[in-house]
Design goal:
Blueprint (H helix, E strand, L loop, with lengths): L2 E8 L2 H31 L7 H6 L1 H7 L9 H23 L17 E4 L6 E4 L8 E4 L3 E6 L7 E10 L2 E9 L12 E6 L3 E5 L4 E3 L3 H4 L1 H12 L10 H35 L2 E6 L2 H4 L6 E2 L7 E2 L3 H14 L1 H15 L2 E6 L23 E3 L6 E3 H12 L1 H7 L1
Parallel strand pairs: 8-11, 11-14
Antiparallel strand pairs: 1-5, 1-7, 2-6, 3-4, 4-5, 6-7, 8-9, 9-10, 12-13, 15-16
Helix pairs in contact: 1-4, 6-7, 7-10
């Protein structure tokens, strides 16, 4: 199986400066390649420039600018050009599908945060032994950087990526042939219902509280963003105070992101350790958090009727703060590694279906927390009912596994 390992880098001041230069030069290469594609299409009879054409120019680019482009790994620059090519492929795919196309855009220096080395040993090398306090990663043009390796790396390292998050640097190792770490069977199955009042509820009746990490620091984050907004948007000279304000906002968002990921990992691990099969709803988070369409007022042209956008915005914020998509992805990955099974089921009417008589009605959901069947009078917690129905819908899969 394939697994990614993410470790904190501890570069020296000189290495950190070199890493920043590496990102800026790769960003410049990305933007230059994008500009070439735009110019070729607009001014040369709509000619398309492809990855193979731009990759063939790399040798001349490196020779022309040895200080900025010639010092870095050739293969990492090819990976940057492939990144642009994938962006164009996704653009044309969305155009053909009739979706919002989203033409590839130029990257600012603060928004280009990752450089990928496609092969270990080609411009980079992972030098480490199990639980070695002196682990290093060698990068061409930067040197040997100390790595805080907090866990054992298994399998064969295929690709190495260097990533910047705020003021921190990370190395991400993509490994294949990673052996599975199967857990002993428990003979238990569970269904989970994702929510906002509770992060999740199991079919056993257990509630996991929603930590609401974004809401916890909402006031501090709003104050930091207001302070950042006081600076002119198109300031030519980025002042020291402006950079400090940017770091403050990035630091708060990074803290929220790390807290949420830590919570997701621990919650998923608890479910995996105690159950052989975990059934969950197949959620379309992007559709659930979509803003409501505006309603025009037929009596007053140019005016709009209330559409509940303000209330929907609060619900969308709570859903995105919970991070259901990330949690379910982590749950699936951990289940595969542990030899467990996750079963996604249809999420429609899971909290409106009576598990006793099977009656489906909107009126069954009396309140957010109370379920009361209008046919048979069955009463229970609405989230518990949803989790029970999720487990019931996974019944055919459970029978096939058994």
């Amino acid at each position: 199986m394939i697994r990614a390992y993410k470790f904190l880098l501890r570069p020296t001041a000189r290495q950190a400066a070199a890493l920043g230069e590496m990102l800026r030069d790769h960003c410049s290469l990305y933007n230059g390649a994008l500009q070439e594609r735009r110019d070729a299409y607009r001014h040369t009879a709509k000619t398309s420039v492809r990855y193979c054409d731009q990759s063939a120019q790399l040798k001349d680019i490196r020779a022309f600018d040895p200080e900025r482009q010639g010092r870095w790994s050739f293969s990492s620059q090819q990976a940057t050009l492939r990144r642009l090519d994938k962006a164009f492929q996704a653009f044309f795919r969305r155009v053909k599908a009739g979706q919002s196309p989203g033409y590839p855009r130029f990257k600012g220096a603060g928004y280009f945060d990752t450089v990928t080395f496609p092969k270990d040993g080609d411009g980079c090398r992972w030098d480490s032994t199990p639980h070695d306090a002196q682990s290093r990663v060698r990068l061409q043009g930067v040197g040997h950087i100390r790595v805080h390796q907090h866990r054992l790396v298994q399998g064969r390292v295929k690709t190495i990526s260097v990533k910047r998050e705020g003021s921190r640097w990370y190395v991400v190792l993509s490994c294949d042939n990673v052996p599975a770490e199967s857990l002993p069977p428990t003979g238990k199955s569970v269904g989970i219902d994702m929510g906002v009042a509770h992060f999740l509820t199991t079919s056993d009746g257990e509630h996991v509280a929603n930590p609401r990490f974004l809401q916890t620091v909402a006031d501090e984050l709003a104050e930091a963003q207001r302070h950042l907004a006081t600076f002119p948007k198109r300031t030519r000279q980025r002042t020291k105070k402006h950079r400090a304000a940017v770091r403050k906002v990035a630091k708060l968002h990074g803290k929220i992101r790390r807290q949420r990921a830590d919570f997701h990992h621990k919650t998923a691990r608890t479910l995996i350790a105690g159950h052989d099969v975990i059934a969950h709803e197949r959620l379309n988070t992007a559709g659930m958090t979509k803003s409501p369409a505006p309603k025009t007022d037929p009596e007053q042209p140019g005016s709009f009727l209330p559409n509940g956008a303000a209330a929907k915005a609060g619900l969308n914020r709570s859903i995105l703060d919970a991070g259901w998509t990330q949690f379910l992805a982590i749950l699936a990955n951990k289940a595969e590694s542990a030899g467990r099974l996750t079963v996604p089921v249809d999420a429609r009417n899971t909290s409106r279906t009576c598990p006793d008589c099977g009656h489906v009605a909107k009126e069954n959901r009396a309140t957010q927390a109370k379920f009361e069947c209008v046919t048979c009078g069955f009463t229970a917690n609405a989230d518990h009912v949803g989790a029970t129905n999720v487990l019931n819908r996974a019944g055919p899969v459970l029978c096939a596994v058994a």
